[in-house]
Fold:
Amino acid sequence: MSFGAGHIQDMINRMKQNRSLRPSARAKFKDHNRAVIYGDGETQLQFKTVSREKLIQIKKNIQQRARLDRRRELIVYGLILGIIIFLLLLWW
Structure:
């Protein structure tokens, strides 16, 4: 008695077939990016330049969005907690 060994063998065969269908990511990586990995030169990063005023404005916008998101989360948590307490009191 094999107790389901046929199902397991079928699963293994399907995994092998699916694996053979997908393209090999390693071959692509070796073909196209070999110079980047094994090159001697350092990669120069290029950053966008922004004026100080624009940077301050961007920071303020990010902080304001974070405050609004935090407030929304607290309101949602408060409502959920209130509903749970109400249901517990109603059930009790």
